[in-house]
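Hello forum,

I keep getting stuck at the same step: I have a sequence, I want structure tokens, and every attempt I make locally crashes halfway through. Rather than fight my setup again tonight, could one of you with a working pipeline run this one for me? It's a single chain of 226 residues.
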Amino acid sequence: MKKILSLFVVALLCRATPAYCAPTRADTVKDVESCWAVLQEIMSDPSTAIPKPILQAAHAIVIVNQFKAGYIFGFKGGYGVILAKKPDGTWSVPVLLSANEASLGLQIGFKSVESVYVITDDATPKLLFRDRFNVGVDAKAVAGPAQAIAEKDYVNVLKNPVIIYTKSLGLFAGATVKAGLLARNDAANFILYNSTYTLPELLYGNWVTPPEEVKPLMKYVSDLTR
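Reply #2:
Ran it on my machine without issues. Output:
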């Protein structure tokens, strides 16, 4: 039992701390494809689908796939991608992130949380330039309204820099949300794009030709936000 738990903790650390276990390119591609699937699943469910006015206001979109497990201590790890909208209206390549949080206390169990963060300003994505930011602390985050809510009610929600949609239901629309840490994962991006460009250059530059594996997600985000 102890050996199994040790191996499980190592697996979590590999996800949450990129330097702990170097990913292969296949791993990075799988993470991008997984995030694309998360966005598709959220958009296909009427209870979580992001309304068009919210999507059209997006300056950046973050897709996060997190898992939470606990045995003696709690640990939430995961990964994600961020895409930024450029001044010409095109979208950047997906840039890999790590998403994790640790807590002490007796916890036993496992849970996955899949979320999409719609970022409505240009300043919030740039918080990642300093390595990481705490969603809901460094930038206010609220739960997003469902499609059934009248469009006039979107106005107040859109005043917040981060609007969160998640497959974990039960969030009250407009309620403040703390979603944990997002951090740059330059090491994984070096592998995915076979370059030494870091997050700021990938998000806002045009120096990388998108590989075929990331184009479906880029097209899907572009189509959703038109």
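The chain has a mean pLDDT of 82. If your local run keeps crashing, start a new thread with the error log.
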